[in-house]
Amino acid sequence: MSHSDQAAHNTAARTAISDSITRPFEAAYITPETLKSLGCYNFPNPANVDPDGVGVVVVGGDLAPETLISAYAQGLFPWFNEDEPIAWWCPEPRCVMVPTDYQPSKSLRRQAKRERWQLTLNQAFDEVIHACSLPRSDGLAEGEHTWIHDEMIDAYTELHAHGFAHSIEVWDDQQQLIGGLYGLKIGGIYFGESMFHRASNASKLAFWGLMRLCTQSNVALVDCQLPNEHLMSLGAKTLPRAEFLTQLDTLVGSRSVTWQPNSHQALAVAMLESPTPWQIQKNES
């Protein structure tokens, strides 16, 4: 591809990204084929270059919005340390969560009824991703996400500005941020990235809120990437990579509700067990 052709392609890609978020609460307006071709890189088939399932598919490229969206639509995600080349992963097996299968523990249900905390959507993305980037010393399986360095923060913050990256926040009764999570949504799949907590079980309540939001939004699958004890305790399971990629092809082009900064009302955690806890924000006339 010549320099002029690549520039034209990138301009078209950014226009497609922008167009995809101009019509709230509608379908993904980018077809799966277009999603995969947004960036200027041709990602290889994981089965061909990583038949043993090590996980690393290719190294290099950039973290431009169109590159990231193209990669996620093909089942790849970036995971690399600061000052290292960008490594694109597609692990075998893949850890996933079906939102409709999620069942909170009895103790979490009791805590939700007791606390006066609230959940919000896309109200503090910058705070959430920075909190997720901080090292942890508590030993919980959500781990020390030192791979969320400045380059990653900048890239996902830009994706948030384009309407693809989203955060769920947990606030205490003093309006202090005590937990949350972030990730990407493309069509009918949500790609989870990280979570954090500053109060006991706050990240679990954020995860429960995500499960309910996905169920209400026609998001059929949550990609958790790599299995760990914490995720499996929440009800996650693993899929063979090939099966995940087959499902992904359908999900990225399916219809789902758009999540915008002011699209949904704040949600009291005590309401998580109600039939439709997340309510669409009504526009004032």
Q: At the third CATH level, what is the topology name of the largest domain?
A: Aminopeptidase
The average pLDDT score comes to 87
Main beta sheet: 8 strands, mixed
Question: Would you identify the regions where 5 or more consecutive residues have pLDDT less than 50?
Answer: 1-10, 20-29, 138-145
Q: Identify the overall geometry.
A: globular
Query: Structural class from helices and strands?
Result: alpha+beta
CATH class of the largest domain: Alpha Beta
Secondary-structure element pattern, one letter each: HHHEHEEEHEHHEEEHEHEHE
Helix run count:
10
Residue share in helix: 25-40%
End-to-end Cα distance, whole Å, is: 49 Å
User: CATH H level of the largest domain: which superfamily?
Assistant: Leucyl/phenylalanyl-tRNA-protein transferase, C-terminal domain
Give the percentage of residues in beta strands: 15-25%
Number of strands: 11
Quickly count the domains.
2
CATH architecture descriptor of the largest domain: 3-Layer(aba) Sandwich
- Strand order across the largest sheet: 10-4-9-8-7-6-5-11
Radius of gyration equals 18 Å
Word description of this protein:
The protein has helices at 3-19, 32-36, 46-49, 65-73, 106-114, 125-133, 150-161, 202-217, 229-233, 241-251; strands at 56-59, 77-78, 87-89, 94-97, 118-121, 165-171, 177-186, 189-197, 221-225, 237-239, 267-268. It is α+β, with helices and mostly antiparallel strands. It folds into two domains: 3-91, Leucyl/phenylalanyl-tRNA-protein transferase, N-terminal domain (Alpha-Beta Plaits); 95-271, Aminopeptidase. The chain is globular and about 50 Å long. Mean pLDDT is 87; it is low at 1-10, 20-29 and 138-145.
